[in-house]
Design a protein that fits this description.
CATH architecture of the largest domain: 3-Layer(aba) Sandwich
CATH superfamily of the largest domain: Response regulator
Number of domains: 2
Oligomer: single chain
Largest sheet: 5 strands, parallel
Mean pLDDT: 79
Strand content: 5-15%
Number of helices: 7
CATH topology of the largest domain: Rossmann fold
Helix content: 55-70%
Order of helices and strands: HHEHEHEHEHEH
Shape: rod-shaped
Structural class: alpha/beta
Distance between the termini: 89 Å
């Protein structure tokens, strides 16, 4: 093979190799673009999920805050169900020996809920803010069988923050129940937020007994 033919062969080989490298480069580029698109789509989906969750939380918070307005408090005070029902409650010993920590911002509501739980046999301690609730639990969490917290407090951490803080503790094993004015939202509070139980205001003895039986007595039987 003369020199000119060798040069032709070499040039052809160089071109072939260059084309191969170009194809490989394009393939990687396409793959990288696909990966980037998938990451962007995944990020958009995650952003939408958290945005929807934030919007739902904001709606619930707003509903709780609206309840704090004077006209809402007047409606509550005028509601026959808000009466302490001294002669209507049936005293029971269903949960005798069980200790409950109850948190609520409204004194009348707190008094009412405390009486409901006491009528079922609970030994009840009360606080009026999320901060006080956490402060009580930090040193005495083992003393309580169940914690019932309002979802929204005045000038304090929320019930959701209370729940997340308690669950972050190594010795966390106490069920946390939300007590809220948000009606028909059980799935939201339990499945999305992670509360162990859900109670609606204004609390009734029947409702409290049903939820606490499921949380405390039925679980004891299952174990």
């Amino acid at each position: 093979m003369d020199l000119s033919n060798m040069l032709v062969v070499i040039i052809i080989l160089v071109l072939v190799i260059a084309n191969i490298l170009l194809v490989i480069s394009l393939t990687h580029s396409i793959q990288e673009k696909k990966t980037l698109l998938l990451m962007i789509r995944s990020s958009e989906q995650n952003c939408k999920f958290y945005e929807d969750r934030r919007n739902k939380e904001a709606m619930i918070y707003q509903k709780e805050l609206d309840f704090l307005k004077e006209e809402e408090l007047e409606k509550f005070n005028a509601n026959p169900k808000s009466d302490l029902c001294r002669n209507k409650l049936k005293l029971k010993s269903t949960f005798k020996g069980k200790k409950l920590l109850l948190g609520d911002y409204n004194k009348e509501m707190l008094k009412h809920s405390r009486k409901i739980f006491m009528s079922l046999g609970f030994d009840v301690d009360i606080v009026q803010s999320g901060d006080d609730l956490l402060g009580r639990l930090r040193s005495t969490i083992a003393d309580y069988d169940v914690v019932v917290t309002n979802f929204q407090y005045k000038d304090s951490c929320s019930g959701l923050e209370v729940l997340e803080t308690i669950k972050s503790w190594d010795n966390y094993n106490v069920p946390v129940v939300v007590l809220t004015v948000s009606t028909n939202q059980r799935d939201t509070f339990i499945q999305e937020y992670g509360f162990d139980g859900y109670l609606e205001k204004v609390l009734t003895q029947e409702q409290a007994e049903e939820v606490m039986t499921e949380l405390l007595l039925n679980k004891e039987l299952d174990s």
